[in-house]
Amino acid sequence: MNRRIVTSGVFLIVIAIAVAVGSYFANDYWIHRYDELINRQAAVYRLDNRLVWSVIYEETYFRAWKVGNDAEVGLMQVTPAVAREWGRETGLKEFEKQSNENVEALLRDPERNIQIGCWYLERLGEKYHDYAAESAMTLAAYNAGPSRVDEWTRQSPDPSRISEEDFVRSIAIASTKSYVTSILQRYRDQKR
């Protein structure tokens, strides 16, 4: 009887360890399966791949099929309006046609979604280039729009000199403040 209890206990411990190890490797695969796409597109748009990865982690936890409350689609939660703007600016008729005729299908494609998301992040970041709070402002603009960042920096005589900490404190939308803080923390953890 005691031998059966011990054997059952050992068996349960082995199963628990196997499940824990399997979960770890499954999660590691899940969060890194788009790394090649992220690295390639981040390089094209002169972005830090760890920042792009952190945005995707926050936006969708790597679920390419996710559709947000405001019709944003895919890994980077790109809006149809941004996709159409990208389609026009590429100058490639096929992309412009896709972005106008079936934008959701275009944005569900991980390659295109990351490409468009990186294009938009780079575009937003150009406005805040060399600002003390460049990353925080870019992320806030990505989440809430550039006009909100202008609103939150309006009181400053020189928005380019606002520290990241002061800028984050000035964000008036709690969900955007949490979004920016979470991504910056994850990004810094990735850099270490």
Structural description of this entry:
The chain is an all-alpha fold and 192 residues long. It folds into two domains: 39-127, Orthogonal Bundle (Lysozyme), CATH 1.10.530.10; 130-192, no CATH class. The chain has eleven helices and no strands. The protein has helices at 2-32, 35-44, 49-60, 80-90, 93-101, 103-108, 110-127, 134-144, 146-153, 164-170, 174-191. Helix 4 (80-90) runs antiparallel to helix 5. It is globular, with a radius of gyration of 21 Å. The mean pLDDT is 91.
**Silhouette:** globular
Q: Which CATH class of the largest domain is shown?
A: Mainly Alpha
Poorly predicted spans = none
CATH topology of the largest domain: Lysozyme
SSE string, helices as H and strands as E: HHHHHHHHHHH
Give the C-alpha Rg. 21 Å
Tally the helices.
11
Percent strand: under 5%
Amino-to-carboxy terminus distance: 52 Å
Work out the count of structural domains: 2
How helix-rich are the residues, as a percent range? Answer: over 70%
- What integer is the average pLDDT? 91
Query: Strand pairing plus helix content: what structural class?
Result: mainly alpha
Keyword list:
mainly alpha; Lysozyme; 192 residues; single chain
